Amino acid sequence: MMMSERQFFNVEPEVAGGLAEGTVLDRSSHPPVVSKVHYRVEGWLGDALIESFPVFLLRQEAWNAVVAEGLTGARIDHAEISVSPDLRDFALPAFVWFQPAGIAKTDDFGTAADGRLILSQRARDLLARFGLAHAEITSV
Predict the structure, then answer these.
(1) Band of the pLDDT at 3, cuts 50, 70, 90?
(2) Helix (H) or strand (E) holding 36
(3) Which of 57, 63, 65, 76 is deepest in the core (most CB within 10 A)?
């Protein structure tokens, strides 16, 4: 049985590290508003989408597919990404700061009022091709 393209999912991506010194965020609202990102990778299990609340990062290769497929509701920006000294010999692929900006349950990418990531079936399936094995995914 095929699922409807109108089905949506709450996705809690792999947490591969955290926000580091140099990240600029305004905590006066929830979720906080971020204007600059420095993400420090402490351990990456291979997913294309990673997070440290309220920031999401996406592999550049997956973003290219999002654009090619015409998915709606997201934009990207530059993020500074560093790797823990414990992983100095680790080859990390290119990631971009992924900003879901669409309307949840309408666009392919959006966020709930509390900052949770909401993906359409189409977006979930596309990102899964690049790796979402460590994300928690539930229907909404």
Answers:
(1) very low
(2) strand 33-36
(3) 57
- Does 68 map to a domain? yes
Domain that holds residue 44: 8-139
DSSP H helices, the chain, are: 60-69, 121-128
Whether residue 1 is contained in a domain is answered as no
Report how far residue 22's alpha carbon sits from residue 108's, in angstroms, rounded to the nearest whole number.
Answer: 30
Query: Alpha carbon of 123 to those of 14, 84, 111, 120: distances in Å?
Result: 17, 30, 13, 5
Mean pLDDT across the stretch 10-32?
A: 94
Give burial (CB, 10 Å; 0-12/13-18/19+) of 7. Answer: middle
Which are the contacts of 96, defined by CB distance < 8 A and separation ≥ 6? Answer: 57, 58, 59, 60, 63, 76, 77, 78, 79
Cα radius of gyration (the chain): 15
Token digits for 35?
């204007």
Quote the pTM value.
0.92
Secondary structure of residue 99 in the 3-state scheme: strand
Going 17 to 100 to 130 to 78, the CA torsion angle's sign is: negative
- Counting the structural domains of the chain, the total is 1
